[in-house]
Specification:
- Helices cover 37% and strands 18% of the residues.
- With 249 residues, the chain is α/β, with parallel strands linked by helices.
- The chain has one domain: Rossmann fold (3-Layer(aba) Sandwich), CATH 3.40.50.970.
- The strands form two sheets. The protein has a seven-stranded mixed beta sheet, with helices on both faces. Strands 5-6 form a two-stranded antiparallel ribbon.
- Strand 5 and strand 6 form a beta hairpin.
- Helix 1 packs across helix 7 and helix 3 crosses helix 4.
């Protein structure tokens, strides 16, 4: 019998649990990338995640490390408290655009401005997924949602909020990168960005955030392939991918 070598396995940072996410949703992929980065950095016994109100409210069911909950929009405040009390732990928030860019705008701006030594994973799918697909601050102009059935209107609704560009001007922010998970190449870039953001915290370099453009087939009214095309041809044009700031070098 030929020798069989195992070259790929489930990360220890992931639980065995059935998913509650919709087909084609990017959250499952991002969860795995977080777990892989945690395993590779050897920080599973030190890390503490903060789950938001939103589609990822049950993130603690999937990660095999400590995770706590926070009120809607408040993960950066909770992360700040935990990190200051337990500075040797690695603390991160995992937030959607409704959580971070709407009700939690003040929390993310002030945590970033203070230069808190935490890591933020910001999942931007352009809609309120948990509550039925309403328009979010990041919804694009013309994009149809449950509360903008004819498309987001510039005069009525204003411009989409570009959180990463806003935070990039703050002196307390040390690392900001926008990535995506709609192609294999982008998945690999996202993993590298998440791993770098965690390493920055380990090395006490300050506030890091990775914004991840993610698919939401259910509430953008597209097939899985259509959602991938939407990210590629429209969303990534309005929210360009790449490093927005790196002051860690």
């Amino acid at each position: 019998m030929p020798k069989v070598e195992k070259i790929f396995s489930k990360p220890k940072g992931l639980q065995d649990a059935p998913t509650h996410y919709c087909s084609g949703c990017g959250h499952g992929t991002i969860h795995r990338l977080v777990a892989e980065a945690v395993d590779e950095l050897g920080i599973r016994e030190r890390i503490i995640g903060i789950a938001p109100v939103g589609c990822a409210v049950l993130a603690y069911d999937y990660w095999n490390f400590d995770v706590t909950e926070a009120a809607h929009g408040r993960p950066p405040a909770v992360a700040t408290g935990i990190k200051r009390v337990r500075p040797d732990n690695i603390v991160f928030t995992y937030q959607g655009d409704g959580d971070l860019a709407a009700i939690g705008t003040a929390e993310i701006v002030h945590a970033a401005n203070r230069g808190e030594n935490i890591t933020v994973i910001f999942v931007n799918n352009g809609t309120y997924g948990m509550t039925g697909g309403q328009m979010a601050p990041t919804t694009l102009i013309g994009q149809k949602t449950a509360t903008s059935i004819l498309g987001r209107d510039l005069v009525r609704d204003g411009y989409p909020l570009k959180i990463s560009e806003m935070l990039a001007v703050l002196d307390g922010v040390k690392y900001l990168e926008r990535t995506a998970v709609h192609t294999p190449a982008d998945v690999l870039k996202t993993k590298r960005a998440i791993k770098k953001a965690f390493k920055n915290q380990i090395e006490k370099k300050g506030f890091s955030m990775v914004e991840v453009l993610s698919m939401c087939p259910t509430y953008t009214g597209r097939s899985i392939n259509g959602s991938i095309k939407w990210i590629k041809e429209r969303v990534s044009k309005d929210y360009p991918l790449g490093v927005l700031k790196d002051a860690t070098k």
